[in-house]
Give the backbone structure.
Amino acid sequence: MSYEVKSLNEECGVFGVWGHPDAARVTYFGLHSLQHRGQEGAGIVANHQGKLDGYRDLGLLSEVFKDERILDRLQGNAAIGHVRYATAGNGSVDNIQPFLFKFYDGSVGLAHNGNLTNAKTLRTNLEKLGAIFHSNSDTEILMHLIRTSPKREFLDQLKEALNQVKGGFAYLLLKEDCMIAALDPNGFRPLSIGQMKNGAYVIASETCALEVIGAEFIRDVNPGEIVIVDDEGIHYDKYTEDTQHSICSMEYIYFARPDSNIAGVNVHTARKNMGRILAEEAPVEADMVVGVPNSSLSAASGYAEASGIPYEMGLVKNQYIARTFIQPTQELREQGVRMKLSAVRGVVEGKRVIMVDDSIVRGTTSKRIVQLLKEAGAKEVHVRIASPPLRYPCFYGIDIQTRKELIAANHTVDEIRDVITADSLSYLSEQGLIDAIGLNFDAPYSGLCMAYFNGDYPTPLYDYADRYVASLKEHVSFY
């Protein structure tokens, strides 16, 4: 049966630069290092002496900008860019960002990472006032709120709009005279500031994008903060004082690149700590530890070191196959797993294998990987997951919004073990995850959003509240 697949899909990645003579090309390089955050489409808007021009299309970044003349056309010393995640039934170029709005009194480019929890209500109210939307993305809502604000100055209009949108958001805006970044009051999505050797300022979803263009990290954008970059330099402002760190824990577990730092914590180090603590919490006798490429390799390394069991390359990934969540049907998704991963018979045959993975969403991928190892002759396969069970949907920027999709919401750990045909299965504890990441913010869970694991959402769910309550009635969590 064919149906829409929703797995762990990052919403997207954003990148912006102000003060570089070849800003569009710098943005291209920055977006390239954020490609893991979105593979459905890409776009860039550039500012050439106050005139904004842009290009966007479906596909990987290299496909969208394969014609060099496109980048050559995007002249200017400032630009913002965006890579979009993939999901079935939503592949319209109208949804590809950055959006470029042209008004009688100026133009604005807008890129957004995250998800608004009150988007439906805001959109309905705006449409009643006469607003016309060109996409089904919630990104457009911010611009409509800005344009309908009674405030006179753009920055005041933006602040008013930011106080109306709820949920997870990291915005980048490009105007004729400045570039502006804004982060939601909880800081769900990462957003970092850097500076290049020529003085140009850069803002990006992850610090790995700063590294690739030779920018020096300055600091992260804080929750509830607005950052303005113009020819005079960089300026910091706030649109709200009601903030509380709730950084998405899945950024550390799965989404971010291991060479990125989020809130001062290196992602590889955090994942290695997850594996180390997992080995302490869930030991098992075995001959080797095998990580599922690529996001689980750090955790597998930590598990091996802590357990004293050798780490081996028992699984090999075909680096030219995109992540399986791109596939629009279950059948294609399973075929994608077979194409992207191979078990190394010469390594695992006759051995007791500990397979370390970062998460189990629906169980189909985990089942196939266990089968790959057993088909290659593994004597036993013990699965260790370097995160707690995913039992609750996310409404802040991860494309899982119903409990029907989460195997851990409907089955016990023992039942999941049987479904994926593993010899044993254990997850990292919630406290183990918190300790592994090691944030020290004065906030619940040390500043992490743990809602996916325990249902404790840091904010009201607004438009999603009724849907969430309905899903709770239909599905029972097992602890």
Notes: The chain has two domains: 12-243, 266-443+459-474.
